[in-house]
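Limitations
The structure tokens in this dataset are predictions for the assembled complex, not deposited experimental models. Users should treat interface geometry with appropriate caution, especially where small molecules or nucleic acid strands are included. An illustrative entry is reproduced here so readers can see what is and is not provided.
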Amino acid sequence: MSSNKKYWKSVEELKDSSIVETLKQNEFVNEIPTDEFLGDKETLEGSSTTRRDFLKYVGFSTAAASLAACEGPVIKSIPYVVQPDSIIPGVANYYATTIADGFDFASVLVKTREGRPIKIENNKLGATGTGANARVNASVLGLYDSLRVKSPMKGEAAISWPAFTSETTQKLNTIKGSGKQIVLLTQTYASPSTSKLISEFKEKYGNVNHVVYDAVSESAALDAFQAKYNERGLADYNFSLAATIVAFGADFLGDWQGGGFDSGYSQGRVPTKGKMSRHIQFESNMSLAGANADKRVPLTPSQQKLALAKLHSLIVGGSFSGNLPANIEKIVQDTASELSKAGSVGVVVTGIQDVNAQTVVLEINQKLNSKAFNPKKPIKTRQGNDKAVMTLVADMKAGKVGAVIMSGVNPLYTLPNASDFAEGLKNTELSVAFSMKADETALASQYIAAAPHYLESWGDVELKKGHFGLIQPTIRPLFDTKQFQEALLLWNDKDEKYSDYIKSLWNSDILGGASFNQALHDGSYISKYSGDVIEDTTEASSEENVETPSGNAARALAASAKAKGMELTLYTKVGMGDGQQANNPWLQEFPDPITRTSWDNYLTVSAADAKALELVNEHEATGALNGSYAEITVNGNKLTVPVIIQPGQAKGSVGLAFGYGKKAGLKEEMQTGVNAYALYQGFNNIQNVTVTKVSGVDLHEFACVQLQNTLMGRGDIIKETTLEIFNTKDKKEWNAVPMVSLNHEEVEVTSPDVDLWDEFDRSIGHHFNLSIDLNACTGCGACVIACHAENNVPVVGKEEIRRSRDMHWLRIDRYYSSEESFSADDAKKEGFDGLGIFSDNGSLDGFGELEIPSDNPQVAFQPVMCQHCNHAPCETVCPVAATSHGRQGQNHMAYNRCVGTRYCANNCPYKVRRFNWFLYSGNDEFDYFMNDDLGRMVINPDVTVRSRGVMEKCSMCIQKTQKTILDAKRDGRVIKDGEFQTACSSACSNGAMVFGDINDKESKVAKLLEDDRMYHLLESVGTKPNVQYHTKVRNT
Amino acid sequence: MKQVIHRKLGINILHLILIFLLTFSTTLSAQDGDAAAGKALFNANCASCHKLDKKMTGPALRNVETRLSEEEGLDRQWFYAWIKNSAGMIKSGDAYANKIYKEYNGTAMTAFPQLSNIDIDNILAYTAEPKKEKIPTPGPDGGTNVNPDSDTNSNGLILGALALLFALLAGALFLVNKTLRRFADEKGVVLTEKTKRTPIWKAFVENQFLVLVTAIFFLLASAYFVYGFFMQVGVNQGYEPVQEIHYSHRIHAGENGIDCKYCHSSARVSKHSGIPSLNICMNCHKSISEVAEGVQSEGIAEYGVDYNAEIKKLYTAVGWDDAEQKYTGVTKPVKWARIHNLPDFAYFNHSQHVSVAGVECQTCHGPVEEMEVMYQYAPLTMGWCINCHRETNVKVKDNDYYTKIHEQLSKKYGVEQLTAAQMGGLECGKCHY
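Predicted assembly:
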């Protein structure tokens, strides 16, 4: 029976829409690329290979390949001819050294294996109390950068060092004769030996000008400090001594004034004896410091200036004229009274690059007699002088400069007027760039002097007045390189090794009789002698300065606070800093703590401004983030940048990070973002800007690892309370154990009666726990990179991150509140009345609203790694038992057993398992560090490099715990508390992460387990994790 | 002392006459020493720096006395003084003493005050012995010259004899059969012809049960072999690669009894046992540039290896100029073929087993002291590891680390001695991370 009935599949088809028809015809949109697979048609036809021959070949080669696969390869081992005493294959050596790359300065400990540096750790004996940040942790990879300059170059051609020295010396002498200037343009070295070398160089060559240039300038702060204390340096702050911290646009948990203030800050943030510090932040961009503040006030830069001037008038005295909105004025008044009450335990800091702002802050701190503020031992790690740099550029352009020798700087990338500099460079008779890379400046110079990495160099640093660090090589130079200082010695006609030079200088001037070898072993020396001397002089000078008329600076500051249109604040990201490590894939892939976006910089815009400018952020169905492009104009300089809508961004302000948009000396994958230095007019991080939407282009594709920005009122994920409740109420009020229903009675979820699993006895042997204090964690991300380096975690690239295939074993989740606080979110969720069909307050709309972050949200950070559940859901679903539990509490992952079903990842409530979608090592598609022999030298030989198709995750650094146990066994001793460490816990200088054995009842982590603030993540699931979290207490 | 008299009688008589004449011509060396005792003394005191025919730390000493008396006019009294206190001689300004001191870059000879004049006489007697010819001397007492093929030859002989015997037997049987048939023919005995039966293969094919059983048997058998084959993939038990330098563990660890950890010292503290660096070889081979004659000929005969040539290879690699007795600085690191290879995903630590557990090297590496060429003794499979962990007790004595955990665990399991497995040695994550 035939019928003419036609069945249509959709309404569109019924209407005979053309789209349906097109799609029908074009079911497979992409033509299968047969040509690529078979070669082009002509060759194919020209070939005499028949189909049968082809099949024969295939058959033969398959058989041959499978037979050959059964035969193991011959592996050659080449031992030393003469084995050095200090190297035992398989045993790590540690060397203390100091990183001083002009932006990051820190005392570090370098772990080497078989002579190869493989990891950076904190040096607890270091000259500063600060730990290694994410960039410092990642810096070891820079040593193995395949794009390093391998020998000195003259133009395009490689030359030898003797040729380089004789040619340059000759030219220097000619220029000396001609009377033209010889300029040394360097990074901040803060190195006593380098200073001495440069003064000797000056003596020899006469008209020598040494210009220190910091890419991201702190010149204003330096000028203010110098004017007040007669010394070029930056005041040191110890936030652990402060009870009230007020910051104006200062990201002092990031890179503000050289960074490294976070460990002191964290000490004061952990409530002890009912007390913790209170932190008030006035800022425009959402910064790390702002995210950690108890009270955050979003203000545009000009408003910040007014507020700071107002605060100054309230505390120090003097008049204030300016227009602040009433509510802000009220807040400033409250802040001032809090500060006055705090007195010597209060402190004010600012990041506004304005001499007046910096002076005002110095005056306030002096007035408060702040304990946290220390001008007597100033920080020496920023010495750049903006004016000198500007004069130099002008001089070069005018042809007054005969020779420019640059070291540790890349002005053609970092100068706002780079084209002027390029022009000037052409006017010089000799230009030499000491550089590890053929970067913009090096390429434009006559000579590239191949410089070694700091792990191959000698050196010394004065980090703070009287606090000295030593730099020692941890590996023989990989390439034919020479340090700037070695070249200076040659130019000075000194036949001396730089290491000997340092040693003799230290013995005569610094050590005061102490052992050089001991200082080298410790990596640092804190000179009591020089500190005392300075103390006297600065005391005297500061007393003199007290009487100078205050208020002038404040008035000038208030007067300068004029904004035209939008205000742009330029900042540095925790991951990229000033951009000198832009070719480091670890840092490129490191998600920014605030935006959680990697592989990019972007314009941060407030939601209100975005709406007004029609800028959008959209989520793709694959879980990727896209954003509009905006064109920003500063003084006629135009840049097109992608936009991220940033909760907490002050309305009327935008932010953009330095360090991106570099082109020379980088792999193509790393050439990301835009160069914000082009807008860095007058070295001022605050610029007036106009922002317009770029229409008619596709949205920018971001690599953002977290699209769910709010907690949706789920207060049990990050438990929070206020200091008041914490001090006064019982634990049950603010950190209750979740209840579940058993026979219609509420039972605690930890009760064995409601457990699906059988309990094992874990009281024998070690039982590891990792404790994470959400109060001490600032979200800095040093642990993320440390984990990356320790565990051979691969880099997957931007495209893969967009597909949510990031491999980080440890992530730091960042959440915004949707209401003004997280507790308000919780209250809103609890208050939902049905679905909302019969009421206005229902969950259907309500949850939708909860997805949107507030304009000025509370922020919370939460490091999440494998929770090593004692009752692990992943273990029960693995069909091949590839993941199993150890007695010591670790959830093991046997890669060789894994078949890649990914059931475990799906069953993991914490989403911490990572799947190797590809082979990331030795694969040209992933041309990052694991794709060349040089980059692979950083791989930790104790950890497997995972192959394609297996699951991986945090192992709680089982290689480290096993090593600690083995060392103890070999020595026949009991393990002390603190010996057990994971990569993250040892990288955390803030004390947020504590690792140890809870069966050792005296251990720190066992005591933390009993702490009232302790809770487990998603405790209601009953997984019994071995990672503890400690409730965040806010001092509101 | 092995002396072959019969073949070289002539030469020896000549030597004897020479010595006889010398005893008369040189009156001072009239107190002739005992060469045998001298050899023992030489080996104990002098051999670390001197050789008879070759310059080492010190000069070659063959016929030193004659040489010095002829060239420098020095007598035996000079030797007594020099050997007992060389430094004193140099100080006293003795011309030749200073000359030789300078020639050897100011390396003073150790003083031997404990040697008596008679001892020195004996040593000098030993040095005065004529050089032995290197040509192997066949003869009844030439113990080193046993024909290496004799064993295989005798085997061939026995087999040949047996084959001949069987051939004779077969021939005899054939003849007997033939004779019997002839007898039968002659006597008219009729031999009954066999009745025709179904051929056995047809019977087999018709019997379905048998076919089925055989098929199953063959299937099982082939499955067994296929399984066996696949289980051997990646297992390199018995792997015995040819190395760049032929190094005999048999001689070093076996005959000379050198402790394994003398060369593989990192096995005590590291995950790697360590392939010894060449400077460790030179600790001994600086003075051992040749092996003993017996060892050398044994090497050539039994293993086809010229040990002395192998030592030369070592010298090339480490850059040692044997003639000049100094390092040239030109090195050529040796590429050894690695024998024991664990996959990347398995973690093994030597120090855990060697230092903590006190496991003998031979437990896993087999009778190394008997191996002329090193080979992989154990399969190094996971099953092999696990078995050992199940059976081996943890060595907890005098180790404070284990005190508490052992007490608790042995109580839990109700055993006196814990095995590695009970201590947690079977957990995946202990070896796979």
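Some entries come with short summary sentences. For this one: Residues 174-232 of chain B form one domain.
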